[in-house]
Amino acid sequence: MSDTRDLRVAVLGVGVMGADHVDRINRRISGARVTVISDASAERAAEVGASASDAQLVTDPFEAIAVEDVDAVLLATPSAAHAEQALACVNAGKPVLCEKPLATDAEGALEIARREAELGRRLVQVGFMRRFDHEHERLKSLIDAGELGQPLVMHCVHRNPAVPPRCDSATVIWNSVVHEIDATRYLLGEEIMAITVLRPTPSSHAAEGLQDPQLVILETETGRMVDIEVFVTSGVGYEVRTEVVGERGSAMIGLDVGLVRRTDPGRWGGQITPGFLERFGQAYDSEVQRWVDAVRAGGGSGDCVDGPGAWDGYAAAAVCAAGIRSLETWDRIEVDMVPRSTVDASARVEPEQSE
Ligand SMILES: NC(=O)C1=CN([C@@H]2O[C@H](COP(=O)(O)OP(=O)(O)OC[C@H]3O[C@@H](n4cnc5c(N)ncnc54)[C@H](O)[C@@H]3O)[C@@H](O)[C@H]2O)C=CC1
Ligand SMILES: O=C1[C@@H](O)[C@H](O)[C@@H](O)[C@H](O)[C@H]1O
Prior knowledge:
Blueprint: E1 7-12, H1 16-28, E2 32-38, H2 42-49, E3 56-57, H3 61-66, E4 72-75, H4 82-91, E5 96-99, H5 106-119, E6 124-127, H6 134-144, E7 151-159, H7 169-188, E8 192-198, E9 214-220, E10 225-231, E11 239-246, E12 249-253, E13 261-263, E14 267-269, H8 276-279, H9 281-298, H10 310-329, E15 332-334
Parallel strand pairs: 1-2, 1-4, 2-3, 4-5, 5-6, 7-10
Antiparallel strand pairs: 7-11, 8-9, 8-15, 9-10, 11-12, 13-14
Helix pairs in contact: 1-9, 4-5, 5-10, 6-7, 7-10
């Protein structure tokens, strides 16, 4: 691939996220265009394809990955399909931006990280977009500059107004808490050693099989603790708040303090973002732009990642797997992870450097 030509991207899975990524690649960022669209629903593929007239529709996701003039793949299929499809990308030598999580079990993620290491070329980026959010970047800079002193504790809130009816308690860990797991590794720059999932009084709005809210406690290797309230049927709006408390002060992000309006009779207030597309729009744009730039810079043989990679996907998957054990057993569970040095390609960069 030449450096001057647009990157030709196949987008797999064009539901909520995939359709937004298609629009982002074709209209909101530069250096890439969508040339293949694939979705299990032919109707949905045609609907999204209508707005991306250059794109060829390919029903089978593995055929889509193999299309010769596809330079790179963006995976936005349901989480359970990621591992097999991401592995197929690596095996085909194609760079892939895989929406989180990289896999819904730790073994699947580890297989991808190991295969990438064998190839000796970084091809896998994982869609932990908070690392590209300006507020998260500022918080990270503050911590790294030592302005809060040594970080001791982190408090997180993650609320969604609603989730699809199929969402169960384990899905909340894989799909929602996985963001705080990655944010912890990114902000504090160390691995998570143990997880405990607690079950407060469930909301009467949660469907059967869904423990909502959940309180999750993470413990890092140096003993810092992170508490996460995850509440996915809040009915209110999309709220993601993070506060880091250090020896010399604290800092919080996600306060929705855009416009604060004062009106009569004696009222004041602002607005809560309705969903992740609005709250993290800037982060998704930066994430995909930087991935496109990295893939183009990598040419046909260099590294193609600028952000969280396969190791980050694996580390998060290992913590999620322990979290699901905790949900089942009601116990504190230690995270079972292979040493980073056994997965060579990823061992080159520390997690806090955002790979
Ligand atoms: N980074 C973020 O903030 C967000 C990430 N996500 C992630 O994006 C992924 C997609 O989520 P949504 O767009 O909300 O789901 P969705 O259900 O809206 O879309 C999934 C699409 O994939 C298609 N599909 C199903 N199985 C497939 C297969 N095996 N191969 C190809 N296509 C298949 C479906 O027909 C559907 O159109 C998930 O992994 C989710 O975790 C979702 C929302 C936000
Ligand atoms: O990734 C996402 C969704 O899949 C998930 O369901 C939400 O809870 C997250 O906030 C969103 O960022």
